[in-house]
Amino acid sequence: MYARPVTVAAQVRADVERNRSAIVAAAIALLGQSPNASMQQIAQAAGVNRATLYRHFTNREQLFTALHEAVLADTAALSSQLPTEGPVVPALRAYLDDAITIGERYRFILMYRRTDPGLFEAEAKATAPVVRAIRRAQQQGEIDGRLDPVFASGQLAMLVIGAVGLVERGAMTLDDARVQAQVALGNAIVPR
């Protein structure tokens, strides 16, 4: 059998997708080190010209929306790994550590204002498995049943944002922030 020839349209789509991926990856890396990097600097880091960057993202807000979507995709992938059987709290503790790792990678997004209502719905969808896990933990007596599961899930998100923010401003190391987030998790949701 012969391989089907690649059409010009397919090659163009592949180039477009490759450029977009390169821009997003470069923006994550560069903005993580220099949150005020210019669009020109992002284009250079991605190995594309400014015109190519602006064909994908007409302004900084559109780029940040795409980066926020990348955070949500990583968060959804992480939360989908929560087990549906067995003890929940140990899984939530591991989830918190991994979420802090994601938060550290995308700290410039966590510190950026997020006002797009479309992203609120995506955030809720990305964390729905966490809410389900918390409900299950409440049924098993692992988590205080008085807590609203959506609120408890939001508290996990705030622990991530708080830990990353403290690291960002140099108030503590990433390892110390992880430890403190774990202590706070235990104090906040586990019955005494």
Automatic annotation (TrEMBL):
Keyword annotations of the record: DNA-binding, Transcription, Transcription regulation
Segments of the chain annotated as binding DNA: 38-57
Matching PROSITE patterns: HTH_TETR_2
Domain HTH tetR-type: from-to ranges: 17-75
Transmembrane parts of this sequence: none
Domain of life according to the entry: Bacteria
Protein name: TetR/AcrR family transcriptional regulator
Organism: Gordonia hankookensis
